[in-house]
């Protein structure tokens, strides 16, 4: 493959950085487009949250990171590194097998330094369009923009022979649907916008979901909250008090939410709640990709992709 072969990588997180390294090793001309001013992707903590806490407004200013301040990895560090670059404990760092997010970011920073990837990365460059312009010659146009002032952006178009999409999947929230949701008067938010527990002091909180974020947030807010009620699906979703918590209960899913602030669960119980937190996952979202049907997202599945990587019509 000729050395003038230009490849764009969208995103400077875990996937984007290791992709850039492998492409660089092959002698290709690699450009990494990163919206933030630092590497890390999802692992770059941002204490700020979106103005739309549910993430429903398509015109909102998107905050990429979904990290909360206390987050630790839920996989042992031994399986989070790369074959030739393990995630080792380092002097002065977090020595735990399940370290905090700061340690992961430091690992990625070291990875960039040791493989000299910084020269490939354009920080502050948001990709707004990726489009195949010449299918026969495999030419893609990548349009990116940089913020010049608070209200003015400068855009630029460039041609590449290939594009690798590494923008992550934890930015576009998936929200639970139930009758009365939009008219319910309390505070609703997605776990994407959860950072610290202090705002839930003395509140009655309903958590929707039973994944890692739901369990972490429940554990963190329950010492401060007045009550915490977790709504889950599944055969074990009957009403019961949660172990190791004096003020937390498990319910079946929400039946409806009322305009008077009450939340009704399918198990028949009713709670006069202050907050509903949707810990309900994310949707794959590629707003910049114009593939003319080559790749689509259907029921949160991306395809068709050979080995979940290449569209069959474009596979090498």
TrEMBL record:
Keywords: FAD, Flavoprotein, Monooxygenase, NADP, Oxidoreductase
InterPro entries attached to this UniProt entry: FAD/NAD-bd_sf (IPR036188), Flavin_mOase (IPR000960), Flavin_mOase-like (IPR020946), FMO-like (IPR050346)
Keyword Mitochondrion among UniProt keywords: no
Highest taxon in the source lineage: Eukaryota
Pfam families with a match to the protein in the record: FMO-like
GO molecular function: flavin adenine dinucleotide binding; N,N-dimethylaniline monooxygenase activity; NADP binding
Entry EC no(s): 1.-.-.-
Name of the protein in question: Flavin-containing monooxygenase
């Amino acid at each position: 493959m000729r050395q003038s072969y230009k490849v764009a990588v969208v995103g400077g997180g875990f996937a984007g950085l290791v992709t850039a390294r492998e492409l660089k090793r092959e002698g290709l001309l690699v450009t990494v487009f990163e919206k933030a001013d630092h590497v890390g992707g999802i692992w770059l903590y941002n204490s700020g949250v979106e103005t739309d806490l549910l993430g429903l407004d398509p015109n909102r200013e998107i905050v990429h990171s979904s990290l909360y301040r206390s987050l630790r990895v839920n996989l042992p560090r031994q399986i989070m590194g790369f074959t030739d670059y393990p995630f080792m404990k380092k002097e002065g760092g977090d020595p735990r097998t399940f370290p905090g997010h700061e340690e992961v970011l430091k690992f990625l920073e070291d990875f960039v330094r040791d493989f000299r990837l910084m020269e490939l990365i354009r920080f502050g460059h948001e990709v707004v369009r990726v489009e195949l312009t010449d299918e026969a010659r495999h030419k893609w146009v990548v349009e990116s923009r940089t913020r010049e002032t608070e209200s003015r952006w400068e855009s630029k178009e460039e041609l590449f022979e290939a594009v690798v999409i590494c923008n992550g999947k934890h930015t576009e929230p998936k929200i639970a649907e139930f009758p009365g949701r939009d008219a319910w008067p309390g505070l609703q938010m997605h776990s994407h916008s959860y950072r610290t527990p202090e705002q839930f002091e003395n509140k009655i909180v309903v958590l929707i979901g039973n994944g890692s974020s739901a369990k972490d947030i429940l554990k963190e807010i329950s010492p401060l909250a007045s009550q915490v009620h977790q709504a889950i699906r599944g055969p074990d979703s009957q009403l019961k008090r949660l172990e190791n918590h004096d003020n937390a209960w498990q319910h079946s899913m929400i039946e409806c939410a009322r305009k008077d602030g009450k939340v009704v669960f399918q198990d028949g119980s009713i709670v006069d709640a202050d907050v509903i937190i949707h810990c309900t996952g994310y949707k794959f979202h590629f707003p910049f990709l114009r593939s003319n049907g080559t790749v689509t997202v259907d029921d949160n599945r991306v395809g068709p992709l050979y080995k979940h990587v290449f569209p069959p019509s474009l596979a090498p």
